[in-house]
Amino acid sequence: MLAVLEHVDAISTALVRDVTAELLDRDRAVDHVVHVDNKSPVAVRDAIDPAHFDAALVVSNQSNVELYAELGLPIFFVDVLYWCGARKDQPVWNLAERTFVQRFPGVAERLQSHEYREEPIQVGPLIRTAAVHRGEQRGTLIQIGGARSRWVRPGENSAFPRMVIDWISHHDIDWPKPWTLAGGREAGEVARQHPLADQVDIVSYPYDEFLSRLNQSELYVTTPGQGAIFEGLRADVDMLVLPPQNATQVLQLRTYEREGLVAPGLNLPALDPAFDTSLLDCTEDQLTSEVLRSLRRIDSQEVADIVGRHLQRQHKELDKVRLARREFTEFLGPRGGPVVAEALSRWWGEQWM
């Protein structure tokens, strides 16, 4: 969303909760925020006055699409995970004035198999670029994201942030110092529970500050989320990939391995012989439940050693993946935010013609 909003000439109000509140509450591209359960149309209806808005920009979360249509708001919909999921025939594809899909392996083929009222527009990575000069590169940035969703709650049903400290503490690892672990506030609190957490600076960055830190890092270690990987590729820093922490990351890592961006061995089916691979084709909540069970099963020193050795091997063998990463970056194309913003502006212009 921020990658689009920074190019839109409008007063923007974001509906936020949990991790999105952490990011959008303190970002220059957002003028106002409304703290609300943005998965609940009832809560959203009570929280907003439609007379204050001219349109709704929807990024992936379709919970309120029919409400926006009922309120008469033009809808612009962005699907960042079009390649993922069983269905792409939900009401939003007919209710939205314009639809956009983020480019990824499998997207073009899927578009060809569906018919829509208006063809979705493929766009490149929906990420920002750093606003500051790179300067001297030093240290290691370890990125775990917000680590939270409606199904994943750090410290309650997921110990992933603490497990990351286990993995990066392996005796073979000799990454550039200092180390900084960036994530959501809740994820940071869980990571601090590790006895070795004082060896890492654990922070929660605003988005622009995170990008600046990324561009100033000698090494970037990240979970396999789309945005995080795209940001690493665009920054062109040495990048290592951690195991996944949620359902979509399991599926994304499978693609990155297939495309040669990272060596196999870190996905949960590889680390956990008990992983139920039949759930890879199920709904996100079903796969997430198995991911959480799997993370509990691999929370051991034995697996931590396997992951630590794999991470250090990635570091030593970066030259083997540089060509694949460069080709993948070229496949993704230029950043998508300006394209979406320009299409929105053009649509508004057409309404006044």
Report the major sheet. 5 strands, parallel
Radius of gyration using CA atoms only = 20 Å
Number of helices: 16
Question: For this structure, what is the CATH class of the largest domain?
Answer: Alpha Beta
Quaternary structure of the protein:
single chain
CATH architecture of the largest domain: 3-Layer(aba) Sandwich
- Beta percentage is 5-15%
Mean pLDDT: 90
Strand order of the largest sheet: 9-8-7-10-11
Shape: globular
Based on helices, strands and strand pairing, what is the structural class? Answer: alpha/beta
User: Helices and strands, in N-to-C order?
Assistant: HEHEHEHEHEHEEHEHEHEHEHHHHHH
- Provide the helix percentage: 25-40%
Q: Count up the domains.
A: 2
Parts with pLDDT < 50 across at least 5 consecutive residues = none
Beta-strand segment tally: 11
Distance between the termini: 28 Å
CATH topology of the largest domain: Rossmann fold
Task: Label this structure with key terms.
353 residues; alpha/beta; Rossmann fold; 2 domains; 5-stranded parallel β-sheet; 4-stranded parallel β-sheet; 40% helix; 13% strand; Glycosyl transferase family 28 C-terminal domain-containing protein
